[in-house]
Each structure stands twice: as C-alpha cells, then as structure tokens.
Design brief:
The protein starts with a helix and ends with a helix. α2 runs antiparallel to α3. It has one domain. The strands form 2 sheets. It has a two-stranded antiparallel sheet with strand order 1-2. A hairpin with a 4-residue loop joins β3 and β4. The longest helix is centred in the N-terminal third of the chain and has 23 residues. It is globular and about 65 Å long. It is 53% helix and 5% strand. With 237 residues, the chain is mainly α.
Length: 237
C-alpha cells in the first residue's frame, strides 16, 4: 500500500509540474478576447448574483482551535466561514437583492441584451453601494417589497447580527470606517504601549446554518420576484 501511495504521489507531482510548465508556456501578455463583437461587461441578472453568493458560502474551512457555539462538534458541524469568504458572499448576495428591484434586470435571460447606456447606469449604482456590508444592508432594507415581506426583513436582521456578533472586531467598528475593509486580515494595536498582536476571532457561527439561512432567503426572493421563471421564459414585470 505504501508503494502504491508513493507511486501515486510521484505521478501527481509529475503531472503538476507538467501543468505548471504548460501554463508558463503561455504568453506573458496573454489577453483573452471574446468572439466577434462581444465584450465582457457586468452581470445584471440578480439570480446569478444571489446564486453565486450561496456558492461562496460552501467555501468552508475545517475548524482547528475555533470554538463553535454551544460546544458543537463533529464532522457535520466542524467548519466555519472565514471573514473574507463571508464578506464576499454577503456582498454579492445583497447586491443581487438590490438588482431585483429593477425589471430590466429581473427579465434578463441567457441571451438578453441591455443597451450600453443602461448597463453603465446599473454598474454605477452597484459601485455606489460600495463594500460596506452594513451600508448595503441599509439600502436593501429600503426596497418596499422587502419591507412588506416578513421573512426577508427577518433574514436581513439575522445577517446584520451575524456580522456584528461574529465577524466585526470587538471595538468601535461602525463609528469610523464601519470596517468596510474587514475582508482583509486584521491586527490589533495598543498605540499607548506601542504593542501589536495578531487578531484572530475564536468563535464563529455554524457554517451549515449560515448557508441554510441564505438558501432560504434565495427561495424567498424567488417567491417575491419569480426570478427563475423570468430567467427561463424571458417574461418581465
């Protein structure tokens, strides 16, 4: 068995090195160009944003010395979501929720076309939302359809509390920068004593439950906007 394992390891290493050489053989200034007159632009179909946000939540990390709530243990629960992963997932999911309010975006199918000026306007709106999760949450809460849907308002409240309780640093997070840059690794400092220390949160919510929360929200959005039906048949409202 050891001989087989060593042979497999050597074959895998050889294949890996061969792949590296193939990649290095590509031009250093390589630029992929779409066929014909197509050009790449931002996606405006909200369901694709929402689904990608859920996919990102699957990028879990197996727990080491990280404490899960209530002493939960075991292979089914022994994983958590690092902040950069959670931040990207929530940002993309919430921006998908934001796009839902626009009929032009909801009605997009695989082969739909939106004029260049409209694409630019929507792109500017998305840029203005920024990367601050709490600020994006506030904007999404303003959408009337969500205010009338108790399940979605509850979801938004849960997301905010998850961010504040488990992922924001334990100090004046939203009084200054609101920690829009919290997706980057953090360090804590005592400027009076001129000391620094790595800051690593030791308690995270159960990753499986976070994913379930967003999957339920994805279904709730479909109930409100009928996104999947529009994606299939191209109807809009």
């Amino acid at each position: 068995m050891r001989i087989i394992q060593e042979r497999n390891r050597c074959e895998d290493e050889e294949a890996f090195q061969h792949w590296c050489e193939e990649v290095l053989s590509l031009p250093a200034n390589l630029e992929l160009i779409p066929k014909g007159n197509f050009k790449v632009d931002i996606e405006l179909q909200p369901l694709r944003w929402v689904s990608l946000g859920v996919d990102l939540l699957k990028c879990r990390r197996v727990t080491g010395n990280v404490q899960l709530p209530d002493g939960i243990e075991g292979p089914e629960t022994g994983s958590y979501l690092p902040y950069p992963v959670l931040h990207a997932a929530i940002e993309i999911f919430l921006k998908g929720m934001w796009l839902c309010q626009y009929a032009d975006c909801r009605g997009l199918t695989d082969s739909s076309y939106i004029e260049q000026d409209k694409r630019q306007n929507y792109s500017e709106v998305l840029k203005e939302l920024g990367h601050d999760l709490l600020a994006i949450l506030d904007k999404v809460r303003e959408i009337p359809e969500y205010q009338r849907t108790s399940g979605i308002t509850r979801f938004l409240d849960l997301v905010e509390r998850i961010i504040r309780a488990f992922y924001f640093p334990p100090y004046d997070a939203d009084e200054r920068t609101r920690w829009a840059d919290c997706r980057y690794p953090k360090r804590v400092y005592d400027d009076d004593e001129q000391k620094g220390a790595a800051e690593s949160l030791q308690r995270y919510p159960r990753a499986k439950w976070v994913e379930k929360l967003f999957r339920q929200a994805e279904q709730a959005l479909d109930d409100v906007w009928h996104l999947r039906a529009k994606l299939i048949d191209g109807t809009s409202s």
